[in-house]
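Annotators were shown the component list below and the corresponding predicted structure, then asked to write short factual statements about the assembly.
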Amino acid sequence: MTPRSPGEGPVSRRNFLRNGARVAALTGVGAVVGTLVHRTSSQTTVWQIDPLKCLRCGRCATECVLDQSAVKCVHSYDLCGYCELCTGYFVPEPNALNTGAENQLCPTGAIQRKYIEDPYYEYTIDEALCIGCGKCVEGCSRFGNGSLYLQVRQHLCLNCSECAIGRVCPGDAFRRVPVSQPYLLKTSH
Amino acid sequence: MDLDIESGVEAPLSKRWLWPAFLALAIVWVCGGTAALGEARFPPPEFESGHALPLTATPSPRSLAMQHVDVAALVGALGLACYLVHRRRSRRGIIALSLFSLIYFGFYREGCICAIGAVQNVALALCDASYALPMTVLVFFFAPLVVALFAGRTFCAAVCPHGALQDLVLIKPVKVPAWLDHALSVVPFLFLGAGLAFAATGSAFIICRYDPFVPLFRLTGSATLLTLGGLFVLASLFIGRPYCRFLCPYGALLRLAALASKWRVRITPDFCTQCRLCEEACPYGAIREPALTSTTPPVLVPARRRLGRLLLLLPVALFVGGWVGSKLSVPFSKVHPTVALAERYADPNKPTVMPIPATPDSLALGRAERDAPQLVAAAVDIRRRFVLSGWLFGGWTVLVVFAKLIGLSVRPDRTDFEPDRGACVACARCFMACPNERVRLGLLPASAIPTRPGPGLGTGPTAAGTKRD
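Structure shown to annotators:
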């Protein structure tokens, strides 16, 4: 045996262990990455609401991590009946079928009502005002065609790993969709 | 108390009087269901005026090219941090890079994507084959880890926005007592274990949910978390990096990696005069004293005995920890929304009449009534997974505590003052505190310090020599 100076033995042993640990750790990380790399998608996913599962509970307005929820009401015009008495626009038993605030279901007046031709009216969502409370969605889905529904607006959504609304959604309506098709729109066909 | 959700499926059947309520609910839900399908109760109009239907606007997510910029910024910043710590040895460079990271990864990217949370995505992807892990998240998970295996925690030094924020606001560091430091340094490992357990079962991303800094970066969030973030920033004024040292789960992982790192941070490339100035300069208590020179048996024997006892006790403790963890898994499984809903469904005291207007909870219960078999089956499956992760988490907890105790019982092999590989976040503060480094850079005359290693701890003219500077 070659003579060793005091202290050299333990140091080299520890370095040996350290090198071994490093190789083991690199192998471990490599294994994890190797397992996942073919399962990863270059295509990111984003959160979206399945309108068929949405229960219009109103939590979208309050649970988003953003001050102004990224969920807004959208309108599929091809499904809309263009009704004069829109149950998504008017409160039940309105005083009159006009744009008076007391007649409107929307708490922020975010739905614009425009006369097209007799007897049709067009309803448009002003997204800057919409808070995603789903009151109009409830009215439209329960008594109308269901052409108003909630969607995550992707230009606003922060795409959190865990959607703060999704985890308290009573309908389990939030799911991840590929970013190439970031909306789950209702259509007539 | 926890309820047996498996037997809960049968519970409503035994109570005949509940049936009318369920039937009524079912009718309501069938009606609601058809409405949700968008059935045209009112046929779409055919306009005589030729009015064209507007299109539904579908604004796109934020640019995807940004993801590649994020990855490039991460890799660039990691490389630069390694260069600044190990080659340039420049605290100023680290401050500048910290500012960049704080602004880019913090306030611009709003703390997301971040390597701290990426651990959970990776755990979920490993356990759930249907979860598509974005490539960016994978890179954010492994790049800092691989760098730490070679160059130590340079990610913590200046790339992580959480660390950068705490590091930059530190004005008057207070020394945390060693016993408290050691005790609290176990917490990140437990947080990591819990985060992995919850993520792997697909229940929650608790590391993201309780992150105190991301709401600050976003300048919005719940009042509780914003307050927590504010408190952490306040604490960071006086306690060096409280989140990194005593909470950060990714820091725990990097700490392990850094223990095996190839190159460590060297306070001075020259000899150590053992003046303790670096120890004073480190706000994170990461600099360790040299080992006692007298390793006579009376000193070593109790430590050896303790080490032996710990190693003998470890297997038993592991089993006990795992068992306790598996028992705790049932109450903790309620964190998963599906299990929570199934338990409410199985609860014999649940409300039977739908309140008007419906609350979100009553709506959820209504959904549970509709597809009870699937829900209960899913909940039972999730609970089974929770039992396994309970065993693992319990065992992990014991292992972490024992590893800490064993680490304290192992004789250090240091001959000089050295940063602890795991605890050092490579902030580069100690470099300029070292008189030898100043001599090397020509900032002090060589005569100010002895030319050979000092005779012992805290002796020699060094300290006095630096005070004149």
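Statements collected:
1. The first strand of chain A starts at residue 45 and ends at 49.
2. Chain A has two domains: 7-40, 46-178.
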